[in-house]
């Protein structure tokens, strides 16, 4: 994230919102008194907050003075309750939408700033509120990325409960429900301009070269504890495929014991779109469980591996 400012404007000040929220609206009354919150940041770190009053008309006339330049964003609300969008952003023309997708029931948009060329991924929350997905730190990275480096995103695609973003340099960002679990993987030597994921196979291309990748080869079926617990909190099922005796000796609260030998029959009680997370003693049986569940038509299945990751 570049150094700069985020400017939030309210008619009545009662709450300081996170500057990453992108919900804009303008007051209809040009004489309305606004309170400006001028938030300075550098590499994601808050450096200072300045508050001052201005009218809507004065704001329109003085945006260039309020803002320090192209690395800034101005967001305006007409109330903290309605939050009905009027226009965004205020500093420049709307960033063109390159792609959209549905990820875990929410709209996701890839945009590109026409002035800076910077690409960003936004997720829609309640109503029209949008929050930027920050890809600055990664739980897994095989590319040698350094914090603050530029990742130019060209395309997005969804697989299971994850959002994949194809970037220049053959890199792919893996966004998960757990923000601490994001991944950055190197998949090819060309800029990834297009990406499709069908039946567990990812196809990426720069318009000239093309390659296909089995999603299981890049961790598509694997999951770590933080992400598993985040999905569990949102309705995923934790299934222990060890024997009943092993389960009695040690188990994770909230998990269900279905021994591997009984799995096929027991899965008849689940819906095909249920999120199923399997684990065992070391990961061998849970890998077999994933394969068996996929063969039965379950798409959102993961191998957590050892129970020790949870306990």
Structural class, judged by helices and strands?
mainly beta
Largest sheet features: 5 strands, mixed
Q: Could you give me the name of the CATH homologous superfamily of the largest domain?
A: YVTN repeat-like/Quinoprotein amine dehydrogenase
Secondary-structure element pattern, one letter each:
EEEHHEEEEEEEEEEEEEHEHEHEHE
**Apparent shape:** globular
Task: Output the CATH topology of the largest domain.
Answer: Methylamine Dehydrogenase, Chain H
Oligomer: single chain
Q: Which percent range fits the helix content?
A: 10-25%
CATH class of the largest domain: Mainly Beta
What is the residue-mean pLDDT, rounded to a whole number? 79
Structural domains: how many:
3
CATH level-two architecture of the largest domain: 7 Propeller
Strand arrangement in the largest pleated sheet? 9-13-12-11-10
Unreliable stretches covering 5 or more consecutive residues: 1-29, 66-72, 76-93
Please count the helical segments. Answer: 6
The value of Rg in angstroms is 23 Å
Give the tally of β-strands: 20
């Amino acid at each position: 994230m570049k150094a700069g400012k985020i400017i939030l404007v309210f008619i009545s000040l009662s709450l300081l919102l996170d500057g990453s929220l992108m919900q804009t609206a303008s007051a209809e009354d040009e004489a309305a008194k606004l309170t400006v919150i001028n938030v300075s940041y550098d590499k994601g770190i808050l450096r200072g907050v300045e508050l001052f009053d201005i009218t809507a008309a004065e704001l329109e006339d003085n945006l260039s003075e309020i803002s320090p330049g192209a690395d800034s964003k101005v967001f305006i609300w007409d109330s903290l309750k309605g939050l009905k969008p009027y226009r965004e952003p205020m500093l420049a023309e709307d960033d063109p939408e390159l792609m959209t997708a549905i990820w875990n029931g929410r709209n996701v948009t890839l945009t590109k700033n026409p002035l800076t060329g910077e690409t960003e991924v936004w997720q829609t929350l309640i109503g029209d509120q949008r929050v930027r997905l920050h890809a600055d730190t990664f739980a897994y990275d095989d590319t040698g990325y350094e914090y603050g480096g530029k990742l130019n995103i060209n395309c997005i695609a969804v697989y299971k409960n994850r959002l994949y973003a194809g970037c220049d340099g053959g890199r792919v960002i893996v966004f998960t429900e757990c923000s601490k679990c994001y991944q950055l993987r190197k998949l090819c030597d060309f800029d990834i301009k297009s990406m499709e994921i069908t039946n567990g196979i990812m196809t990426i291309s720069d318009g000239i070269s093309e390659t296909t990748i089995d999603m299981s080869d890049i961790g598509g079926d694997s999951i770590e504890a933080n992400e598993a617990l985040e999905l569990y909190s949102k309705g995923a099922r934790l299934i222990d495929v060890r024997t009943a005796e092993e389960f009695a000796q040690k188990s994770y609260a909230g998990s269900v014991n279905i021994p591997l030998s009984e799995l096929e029959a027991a899965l008849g009680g689940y819906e095909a779109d249920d999120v199923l997370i399997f684990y065992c003693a070391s990961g061998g049986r849970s890998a077999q469980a994933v394969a068996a569940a996929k063969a039965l038509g379950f798409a959102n299945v993961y191998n957590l591996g050892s129970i020790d990751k949870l306990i």
